[in-house]
Design goal:
Elements: E1 4-13, E2 17-20, H1 21-24, H2 32-39, E3 43-46, H3 54-69, E4 78-82, H4 93-101, E5 107-111, H5 117-130, E6 137-144, H6 154-157, E7 162-172, E8 177-185, E9 193-195, H7 206-210, E10 216-218, H8 220-241, E11 251-254, H9 259-269, H10 280-283, H11 290-298, E12 307-314, E13 318-325
Parallel strand pairs: 4-5, 4-6, 11-12
Antiparallel strand pairs: 1-7, 2-3, 6-7, 8-13, 9-10, 12-13
Helix pairs in contact: 3-4, 8-9
């Protein structure tokens, strides 16, 4: 049987500080009822502290992942970090995480695909396993969204939170692991969801700071419309391509952007609500971390061989779906 890349461990990390809707209502003109009706978010986690970047959360989740799987960080061959809030423009956060955890034999890099980052990174990591080049690939989804959110902007500050999740990929000949994927991009969507300044098009300046152009800019209605259609389209397509009915799908793992988007995608796929992983009410949208955090939260309910569809949509635009068979019993 062909070698596949199977998830053999999953772990999550969340900062201690809980930002509730009640606290947000003291910062901007909003309230719990308004936020819950539009997003389904009750609270989100925030990484507090001086000089703490995404690598703090990523390093902690990788350490915990290794302890859980009972491996040394030195056994990791490759580490891929999906993030839009890396510690620096360069070096890559993956480099920093390898240093912090002692993954001396690993190489890797960051993938910047917004909320689709974890799917793109998981697809990438699986190729190195399937090619027979590596035995242990760690894929991390991490974002410190609080670092690029304007807490005076009601449209965005209610949505995002901080967190990290990670999986370990290892070779399998048991017929489990990543079975198929569809990944897509459309750069013309960048005007609807992006960070205006800080890159090479618009370098940081007093003017860009004054104009608040280093924060997330989002046109909610446009993003909602695209997200529902594209997430649903790729999810349905990957089911058809692999002859999967809604009954065959054990779990849908949708990007946790908005409760209404999640429900719309599940409805289009005809997957019942009890098969849809959801933790948006607890963590908000943690961007690249939402999917691994869902797998971590639901790990004890997963059985080896379960058919799982992961689906996401991100700024820029990026979107995709993965069909995988779960790799182990908890």
């Amino acid at each position: 049987m062909a070698i596949t890349a199977a998830i053999t461990a999953v772990e999550g990390y969340l900062p201690d500080y809980v930002l509730t809707n009640e606290e947000l209502s003291k910062m901007v003109d909003t309230n719990d009822e308004w936020i819950m009706a539009r997003t389904g978010i009750k609270e989100r986690r925030i990484l507090k502290g001086k000089d703490l970047g995404a690598s703090v959360m990523a390093a902690e989740v990788v350490k915990r992942l290794c302890e859980k799987r009972k491996i040394s960080p030195e056994e990791i061959d490759m580490l891929i970090v999906a993030t839009v809030t890396g510690d620096y423009i360069f070096p890559a956060t993956a480099n920093i995480v390898c240093d912090k955890v002692g993954a001396k034999n690993a190489w890797g890099y960051d993938i910047n695909s917004a909320c689709s980052g974890f799917i793109f990174a998981l697809v990438t990591g699986s190729q190195f396993i399937q090619a027979g080049r590596h035995k242990k690939v760690v894929v991390v989804g991490v974002d410190k969204m609080s670092s690029i959110i304007d807490y005076a902007d009601r449209a965005t500050c209610i949505i995002f939170g901080d967190g990290a999740g990670a999986v370990l990929l290892e070779p399998s000949e048991d017929g489990v692991g990543v079975m198929d994927y569809i990944c897509k991009v459309d750069g013309s969507g960048r005007k609807h969801l992006y960070q205006k300044a800080g890159g090479s098009v618009k370098s940081p300046s007093p003017e860009s700071v004054d104009m608040k152009e280093h924060y997330v800019y989002q046109e909610g209605q446009q993003v909602f419309k695209f997200a529902v259609k594209e997430m649903a389209d790729v999810s349905v397509e990957i089911m058809k391509r692999n002859n999967l009915s809604a009954d065959d799908v054990a779990w849908l793992v949708p990007h946790q952007a908005n409760k209404r988007i999640i429900h719309a995608v599940a409805e289009r796929m005809e997957v019942s609500e009890d098969k849809v992983m959801m933790n948006i009410h607890k963590y908000g949208n943690t961007t690249a971390a939402t999917l691994p955090l869902c797998l971590w939260d639901y790990e004890k309910q997963l059985k080896k061989g379960d058919n799982i569809i992961l689906s996401s949509f991100g700024g820029g635009f990026t979107w995709g779906a993965i069909y995988l068979k779960w790799g182990y019993n908890s």
